[in-house]
Write a structure and sequence with these properties.
Largest interface: A-B, 21 and 19 residues
Strand order of the largest sheet of chain B: 6-1-8
Number of strands of chain B: 8
Structural class of chain B: alpha+beta
Largest sheet of chain A: 2 strands, antiparallel
Number of strands of chain A: 2
Number of domains of chain A: 2
Strand content of chain A: under 5%
Order of helices and strands of chain B: HEHHEEEEHEEHEHH
Shape of chain B: elongated
Helix content of chain B: 40-55%
Oligomer: heterodimer
């Protein structure tokens, strides 16, 4: 029974495809899975927008949307109708083809990332040996879409936003990759399924998730920072900083194209949270051995939603960074920490079992964090803002 | 240490998030059409004309002196003076406004008309839900729409209305006393004339 529930979607797919001729079965299976992903994540997006607005409201002691439907939960439907019926304006001097292609490319590239994420036991669309590599390749191509949007709009705000976005995304891409490399070093595989399997064993009821190791914890924090920057979420929302750039690279988009950008942004958030879950939080594995009877996909999606909640929480807390702070933070603080973390992960691997490796690795990481942080703060590179002319 | 401020901020927002579900005083939102808060006593929106008694047309305090019309900065008041006179609250014959229009799409709620009125005839209303589908006719209020009873005035601005009522009462008493004295003097004079004649 438990087994059945765990594999319910897999068996459903098999049952649906089994009636077809054998030659068509693989194609139909893939198509059905794609349809499931393409339906599920936008639905999750709709739900997240209303939860985000309500959550941000609560963080600011407001109620949030509560007019449409019970507790305002039909708000996304109203938003959808609005964005569908709005006039789609293409600026006269814009490059119409690229202007049209940009949101499509963004959404397609983001959807591709979901292909390799294991969302439950045996629940992965494409079982790829280099899944992580594929994911990062697809993630990197969203930058192209953002720049296409900014460039084709022929608007200074769009272009500035796109420039910022590209600078930011490339800088943080390095961190994203380097913090994930530690996991690859430990798991010894680029396959996301293998990485989850490496984490899904238990000692005294506790799982072997990578976040519960010194290098994994540091790596996860850096991954989270880079993920926030990659998805252009607050406090790294400079590319669309509405107080400076109107709306950044999607200034000249309206109606459904804007909705596509919005969708792409949230889907990127889901997929990057999904990858973070897979790499550091044990993917679909249960947090305690006595909870393994709960279906694996429940765990994946609850971890995903928890990450989304953290994203919203951060958005409700932190103000936007300045461009120089953003760059200094990436290249002078997080990147050195990432490189150090690679060494620490190596040390962890070769020091063997036992408490000495816990002690050594933790001490190195904490000392580096405190030392680097203090010295950077003293130099004024990161830390409280100082104003030269506005005093 | 680096990151301390972020932790502090996250704790604060978390406190807000969970606190907003348990403590009602955190939530300052008034869900307007369903929930309302009583307007402040000193609130002012657009002017209205005060009348005494039951009949709005007979009881209007306005004597069409047109001071407010001249003083109004955006010139939103339009008055047509009557040709005949009618007695006011002390019995003195006065003109009255044959037409008194205020264009509330022009009015800037400055209350200058109220300040300059020597007859306590124009006051500020607290009614603010004046939206209409007709932006020309619907926002041009005539004297019938502007007329509100003194009871209504007492209800929306109790303190101010009490002072106005007291002032008008003393004025009326003074006028009555003067009239009485004049009547007595006239009676005495008449008596004296009659005595002389006799």
């Amino acid at each position: 029974m438990i087994e059945k529930l765990d594999q319910i979607f897999v068996s459903l797919l098999h049952w649906l495809v089994s009636s077809l001729p054998a030659t068509l079965q693989p194609l139909a299976g893939v198509l059905l899975s794609v349809v499931a992903i393409v339906c599920l994540f936008p639905a999750l997006f709709a739900l997240t927008t209303v939860f985000e607005r309500k959550g941000l409201g609560r963080i600011q002691n407001r109620l949030g949307p509560n007019r449409i439907g019970p507790f305002g939960f039909f708000q996304p439907i109203a938003d959808g109708i609005k964005s569908l019926t709005k006039e789609d304006i293409v600026p006269l001097s814009a490059d119409a083809v690229v202007h049209f292609l940009a949101p499509v490319v963004l959404v397609v590239a983001v959807f591709m990332g979901f292909a390799v994420l294991p969302m439950g036991r045996h629940m992965v669309l494409v079982e790829m040996d280099a899944g992580l590599l594929f994911y990062f390749a697809m993630g990197a191509s969203t930058e192209l879409a953002v720049f296409m949007a900014g460039w084709s709009s022929r608007n200074k705000y769009s272009l500035l936003g796109a420039m910022r976005a590209v600078a930011q995304m490339i800088s943080y891409e390095v961190i994203l990759l380097l913090s994930s490399v530690t996991v690859v070093m430990m798991a010894g595989s680029l396959s996301l399924t293998k990485i989850v399997e490496a984490q899904s064993s238990y000692t005294w009821g506790f799982p072997h998730w990578y976040i519960f190791t010194p290098w994994g914890c540091a790596g996860f924090v850096m991954y989270a920072i880079a993920a926030t920057a990659e998805t252009n979420r607050s406090p790294f929302d400079l590319p669309e900083g509405e107080s400076e750039l109107v709306a950044g690279y999607h200034t000249e988009y309206s109606g459904f194209k804007f909705a596509l950008f919005f969708l792409g942004e949230y889907l990127a958030m889901f997929s990057i949270s999904g990858l973070g879950t897979t790499l550091f939080l044990g993917g679909w594995s249960a947090p305690f051995s006595f909870l393994t009877w709960i279906p694996s996909w429940t765990w994946f999606f609850s971890k995903l939603m928890l990450s989304i909640f953290v994203f919203i929480w951060l958005r409700g807390t932190l103000p936007r960074l300045r461009q120089d702070q953003l760059m200094n933070f990436a290249w002078k603080f997080v990147l050195p920490m990432c490189l150090l973390n690679l060494l620490v992960a190596g040390a962890w691997r070769f020091m063997g079992e036992g408490w000495p490796r816990w002690f050594v690795c933790s001490v190195i990481l904490v000392a580096a964090y405190a030392g680097l942080g203090l010295s950077e703060m003293r130099k004024g590179k990161i830390g409280p803002r100082s104003y030269r002319y506005a005093e | 240490m680096l990151g301390e401020g972020i932790a502090k901020g996250l704790a604060e927002t978390a406190k807000n998030f969970f606190g907003s579900y348990v403590s009602a005083e955190r939530m300052t939102t008034v869900e307007y059409p369903e929930q309302r808060i009583a307007p402040f006593e000193a609130a002012r929106v657009f002017p209205f004309l005060v009348y005494d008694g039951a009949d709005w047309e007979a009881g209007l305090r306005c004597v069409a002196c047109q001071i407010c019309e001249k003083e109004c900065p955006p010139k939103c008041i339009f008055i047509v003076k009557s040709t005949e006179k009618k007695p006011d609250f002390v019995g003195k014959p006065q003109f009255y406004p044959a037409r008194f229009d205020i264009d509330i799409s022009v009015c800037m709620s400055c209350q200058i008309c109220v300040e300059v009125c020597p007859f306590e005839a124009i006051k500020m209303n607290t009614e603010f839900e004046l939206a209409t589908v007709d932006r020309f006719g619907g926002l041009l209020l005539d004297r019938k729409q502007l007329a509100k009873s003194n009871e209504y005035y007492r209800q929306i601005h109790p303190t101010e209305a009490a002072a106005v009522d007291a002032r008008l009462a003393t004025e009326k008493a003074k006028a009555d006393a003067k009239a009485k004295a004049a009547a007595e003097a006239a009676a005495a004079k008449a008596a004296a004339v009659a005595g002389e004649g006799a």
